[in-house]
Amino acid sequence: MLMHTLWLVIQREFVSNVLTSRFMIGLIVCLLSTAVAVFVQVDDYEKRLTGYNAAIREAKAEAQEWNLYYNIKPRTHRKPNPLGIFNVGAENFGANTVTIELAKPVFELTFPIMGEPAEKRGADNSFLSMFLTIDVVFIFKIILSALAILFAFNTISGEREDGTLKLVLSNAIPRDMIVLGKYLGGMLSLFPIVLISLIVALVIALSSRVTAFDGNDISHIVLIFAVSLLYVSTWYLLGLLLSIWTKSPATTLILSMVIWVMLTIVHSNMATIVVEKFPPYQSKPEAKFVRSAGDVWDQFRKERDTYIKRRGYENLQDSISWEPGADSERTNRFVTFFSYGMHNLHLLEGYIIRDVDKADTSIFQEILGYQEPLRIAYADKVEEVLNKPAEQRERNAKFADALSRISFADVYHFAIGAIAGTDRQSYNNFIQDSRAYKRKIVEYLKDEKAFTSRAWFSNDQGPADLTYLPVFQDRRLSLSDSLSRAYIDILILLAWNVVLFMAAYVSFLRYDLG
After folding, report:
1. 403 CB contacts (<8 Å, ≥6 apart)?
2. pTM of the shown model
3. Could you tell me if residue 351 is inside a domain?
4. Number of structural domains in the chain
């Protein structure tokens, strides 16, 4: 009997929503907005993927020219994420290419530096970038939340004003059945809008000649759909609660829209602005860290020179001995070329030995076996120094995110970004993976004894063996990985649903029709 009563309430609420102009207008607006957003994002994805593939081909061609260990300079490329079509997130943010040089730290500063390892392929279009922030999740975040409020604002107060609520309660229908039935009926009427919009987005995305979703991507899209429903449910429950608390639907609508504007538009922007103006974690100016990097390289030179002198030589050139009869007067048979970089942020040194077939370089190679690993160790120290500003920026950004989570609109945004792998953490993972890739190359060179090899500086006895040089692998998140990153935000949305439903339930039990 109770289930039959519940079904009647659900059916009545569903029909009353679907047969209104709000439903058709909401469906049309959501479909058109979603379609336009997906067309823009698909076009951007195609361009980024074309640039990525071109960069990969260029990198492979460059690798064919490496004949010395010293020449190794691979690049890591950030592969465009097809799920960025639904939530672009940080896909267009920051660097998408990192150049790996053994004695060069991987860092990011707020001001551009020539030769910086992390760089962005392609030019930014500031006008177009405004449109690229609009994606499916943005449409859901704004339009579906507003639609949920428009469906819920008169569920109780509207029927009270019409007099139908008193008639319903006169039939001895339990109040908890009314609240639950109206919630389920409202969500049932919103369900097809969310589903059809996502299907349209998926069809448009698949119509592209370069877009392909595997099983892992589809599972992520299903999870995005589920979390989107949870987000819409939060707004519907808020509208239902306000409809119980207020006496007229006009008051409910005004109050709901004020809260909607504050939570979807104002709050997150204000949190970011406040943290930027008053950062909780203060950092020294980046120029001081840059100067500290120069000091680290000075320490490297001292330690390296001390070692060479301890071996009994004034410089590296003196460690090379020549065969009898060689032109000992030739001054340019040993050439050192340097690259300090702007502000002395790195120190690269290469060597050219002419008439190398007449030279005994055994001691020279031993010194290189000490010097180059030492250089890499100091590059890591410089990297640690130069990364401190970025670490402080990340701490401030996380604090801003924590403030933004007061709004369940921003919680939804963070959850979808973590699921799709397009959030700021995914970008940070790319930079961290690039550093890890550099460490793999260093370990490979140590295993190959490359630092003491003649092929470090000369190919007269054969080129460097790069057959098993590690290849960078772009990280893809599995569904379990995505859930482990997004579960806190999903739980927050779930908690909001429970709290709002219980508040609506208790409030309606005490609801006075007088």
Report:
1. 271, 274, 275
2. 0.88
3. no
4. 1
